[in-house]
Amino acid sequence: MSINHLILRSFKKNVKSYYLYVFALMFSAALYFAFVTLQYDPAMDEASGSLRGLAAIQTASVLLIAIVTVFLIYANNLFIKRRSKEIGLFQLIGMTKNRIFMILSAENLMLYFGSLVIGIFIGFAASKLVAMILFKITGVEAVASLYFSGNAFIQTLLVFGGIYLFIMLMNYLYIKHQSILSLFQVKSKTESQVRKISILEILMGILGITLIATGYYVSARLFDGSFVSTNYLFFAMIFILASVIIGTYFLYKGSVRFIANLIRKSKGGYLNINEVMSLSSIMFRMKSNAMLLTIITTVSALAIGLLSLSYISYYSAERTAESTAPDDFAFITTENAEMFGEVLQDSGIGYSEKVIDVIQVEVDVEQIVGRDMENFQFESNKMRMAVISDHQVRETNVSDGDTTFAGFSDAMQTLLNLQDSGTLTFHGLTTTIEQEYLGLAKENVLPLYFTSGLTTAIVDESIYTQLAADLDPDIQLESSTYIGFTLDDRATVAVADELFNSMPFKDEFGNSSHYTEERIQKQNMGLLMFIVGFLGLTFLITSGCILYFKQVEEGDEEQPNYKILRKLGFTEKDLLKGILGKQLFNFGIPLIVGLVHSYFAVQSGWFFFGTELWTPMLIVMGLYAALYSIFGILSVLYYKKVIKLAL
């Protein structure tokens, strides 16, 4: 038999075992090529004036390479170990290690670059769709077209060619350093199954749960003032990250196995077939898979968390724009407002105008703030606040002894922990006025120019007059008037916004368009969400494949056990029930732990990114869990095939 014939026979024999590896390789190549094509697409040149941060796409492509490289190396190591006996047989019949390496390299060359070429073609076909998704998410008005980039093609070949050379080097070193005996023993090496769970493992498991719980507790108090006061916020974040990651590793190393052992002992050692199939595998394999599961869980939590936060910002874009422009257009000078008003009238665009007089007053808020004001560097419990009269705010009326707040953000509410009632003290230049606090409303009344990100105090007209007559000139802003325009016809929004952006004062702080601010927010956060989504999808596919490969390996090792069970009279249905329970653990535990990690991470600081938590977070988590579950289903189908072949 010639060497070429041997290569072809080996390739045909093993190609079925590599189908998911081939799929993941094609998917990775397609994703990378489509992603890189964005950098060279002429449509992106047209959108570059509107879309900011395109350099982030180049950075993300590097991270994409790292994810794909780790996956391909892991998958290659897994498959070469599966073929260890075959390599050993080649050596027994007299083949040199160099000749064996040449056979494997030739086989891998056909498989790898065949998949790569197909993946690039798929990426080319999908590149227009990818560009359309980016333009849709970011709101950029550009036309996406099907475009083949020679530069992207060469870059993809170079990157994946480099990965291939590195994989071949690892294969060469593996074959070079393995003896014939060790090659025949690779697949028979399993974790010690007879050892009892040691006290150290039990303590490690308890410590893991404790570390995770501690990390959750600290994250829940991250922005309540406990760490801001001592400037230890950065160290608190490092502690949370370290405790959760280490705790997750200890959880897999000891806790899960310990809990499974407790379940087994609670049944007195009498387990049914389902429990044998699931609990035994968890007890004897979870420990050896601890590092892999920790990495998958941590990166899954990171991907879900980042995607949730970016989607929260995108989802809350309109609300965020209100803090800069509460009305359609905001001005702080009469001259600019009149100039723009004339332009709107000349264009036949109707609008209504409101004018609010604003003063700045020092307010003692000690009695309504549930945090130590020294933590936030406010002097003597005083906050400089924008104050307006209730007569200037529609549908708002307060008595002369009461004050209400408007335009308070979730972030400030969390940091200050405002109470429902209390006494406020307004400090004029020479006098003080006490007011009863009635509560707050999230609707913004004034733009960021006047509020500086804080709130607006609404008081009775008589109180406003007293405060205005006793102003502290040192804290007053250059402008004391807010002018807001609201369009009569929503269909004129685009034209009016375009007219505003053609005005000479459009970039002056305080003059702003609600729609421009919303568009910028969606563009920035949409681009971030697109990049994080791309990377998250890549990681999801690769990590799902890795877990699937592990199940394939375990299924092949356990096939003799299934053969014995089938001879004892257990049906295929009996075994599949146990397999289903096993997959719920193998895929469910990393997914559930990752979701819980991401929830606490998002919960600790989501209010800095937007105004809505549950809807965007649940959408992200639901999609991630649904896609992740596909690999669990594929694993069950593979085990079903293994069980059928057991007899």
TrEMBL record:
Bilayer topology term: Multi-pass membrane protein
Keywords from the named record: Cell membrane, Membrane, Transmembrane, Transmembrane helix, Transport
Domain ABC3 transporter permease C-terminal: 60-179
Keyword Cytoplasm among record annotations: no
Superkingdom of source: Bacteria
Location relative to the cell: Cell membrane
InterPro entries documented for this protein: ABC-4_Integral_Memb_Prot, ABC3_permease_C, ABC_permease_BceB-typ
Transmembrane parts of this sequence: 18-35, 55-75, 109-133, 153-175, 196-220, 232-252, 290-314, 527-549, 584-602, 614-639
One BP annotation, GO: transmembrane transport
GO cellular component: plasma membrane
Stretch forming the signal peptide: none
Family stated for the protein in its record: Belongs to the ABC-4 integral membrane protein family.
Listed name of the protein: Bacitracin ABC transporter permease
